[in-house]
Fold Transposase.
Amino acid sequence: MRKKKSDSYSSLVQANHDTDSTKHVIKEKKELYRFWKKRTWIIENLLIEIQGYFPERITDKYLNELYSQCFKSSQKRSRELLSRCVSL
Protein backbone atom coordinates (compact mmCIF):
# COMPACT_ATOMS: atom_id res chain seq x y z
CA MET A 1 0.00 0.00 0.00
CA ARG A 2 2.83 2.37 0.74
CA LYS A 3 4.14 1.72 -2.76
CA LYS A 4 0.77 2.51 -4.33
CA LYS A 5 0.48 5.64 -2.21
CA SER A 6 3.97 6.72 -3.28
CA ASP A 7 3.24 5.98 -6.94
CA SER A 8 -0.01 7.92 -6.88
CA TYR A 9 1.75 10.89 -5.23
CA SER A 10 4.47 10.84 -7.89
CA SER A 11 1.81 10.74 -10.58
CA LEU A 12 0.02 13.68 -8.97
CA VAL A 13 3.21 15.74 -8.82
CA GLN A 14 3.94 14.92 -12.46
CA ALA A 15 0.42 15.94 -13.49
CA ASN A 16 0.75 19.23 -11.62
CA HIS A 17 3.99 20.00 -13.48
CA ASP A 18 2.55 18.97 -16.84
CA THR A 19 1.12 21.95 -18.67
CA ASP A 20 -1.05 19.67 -20.81
CA SER A 21 -2.82 18.09 -17.83
CA THR A 22 -6.42 19.11 -17.48
CA LYS A 23 -8.05 19.92 -14.18
CA HIS A 24 -10.05 16.71 -14.51
CA VAL A 25 -6.90 14.57 -14.72
CA ILE A 26 -5.32 16.36 -11.77
CA LYS A 27 -8.52 15.93 -9.74
CA GLU A 28 -8.57 12.18 -10.47
CA LYS A 29 -4.95 11.82 -9.43
CA LYS A 30 -5.61 13.75 -6.20
CA GLU A 31 -8.55 11.47 -5.40
CA LEU A 32 -6.45 8.38 -6.07
CA TYR A 33 -3.67 9.67 -3.81
CA ARG A 34 -6.14 10.50 -1.03
CA PHE A 35 -7.68 7.03 -1.36
CA TRP A 36 -4.32 5.28 -0.87
CA LYS A 37 -3.29 7.71 1.85
CA LYS A 38 -6.45 6.90 3.84
CA ARG A 39 -6.07 3.14 3.32
CA THR A 40 -2.46 3.25 4.44
CA TRP A 41 -3.36 5.30 7.51
CA ILE A 42 -6.14 2.86 8.48
CA ILE A 43 -3.91 -0.22 8.18
CA GLU A 44 -1.01 1.41 10.02
CA ASN A 45 -3.21 2.49 12.91
CA LEU A 46 -4.90 -0.90 13.17
CA LEU A 47 -1.50 -2.56 13.39
CA ILE A 48 -0.38 -0.14 16.08
CA GLU A 49 -3.58 -0.78 18.04
CA ILE A 50 -3.41 -4.57 17.70
CA GLN A 51 0.30 -5.10 18.27
CA GLY A 52 1.39 -1.96 20.08
CA TYR A 53 4.05 -1.12 17.51
CA PHE A 54 4.36 -0.45 13.82
CA PRO A 55 6.42 -2.93 11.77
CA GLU A 56 9.09 -1.65 9.42
CA ARG A 57 7.62 -3.55 6.48
CA ILE A 58 4.10 -4.71 5.87
CA THR A 59 4.09 -7.64 3.48
CA ASP A 60 1.39 -10.10 2.49
CA LYS A 61 3.22 -12.75 4.51
CA TYR A 62 3.21 -10.52 7.59
CA LEU A 63 -0.52 -9.76 7.23
CA ASN A 64 -1.36 -13.44 6.70
CA GLU A 65 0.54 -14.42 9.86
CA LEU A 66 -1.18 -11.68 11.83
CA TYR A 67 -4.57 -12.82 10.55
CA SER A 68 -3.75 -16.40 11.50
CA GLN A 69 -2.77 -15.35 15.02
CA CYS A 70 -5.95 -13.31 15.45
CA PHE A 71 -8.07 -16.18 14.12
CA LYS A 72 -6.46 -18.69 16.49
CA SER A 73 -6.91 -16.29 19.40
CA SER A 74 -10.60 -15.80 18.62
CA GLN A 75 -11.12 -19.57 18.37
CA LYS A 76 -9.45 -20.06 21.74
CA ARG A 77 -11.67 -17.40 23.35
CA SER A 78 -14.76 -18.99 21.79
CA ARG A 79 -13.80 -22.41 23.17
CA GLU A 80 -13.18 -20.95 26.63
CA LEU A 81 -16.53 -19.19 26.59
CA LEU A 82 -18.29 -22.33 25.41
CA SER A 83 -16.67 -24.45 28.14
CA ARG A 84 -17.78 -21.93 30.79
CA CYS A 85 -21.35 -22.04 29.51
CA VAL A 86 -21.40 -25.84 29.43
CA SER A 87 -20.06 -26.12 32.98
CA LEU A 88 -22.87 -23.90 34.31
Notes: Residues 1-53 form one domain. The chain has a mean pLDDT of 79. The two ends are 48 Å apart (CA to CA).
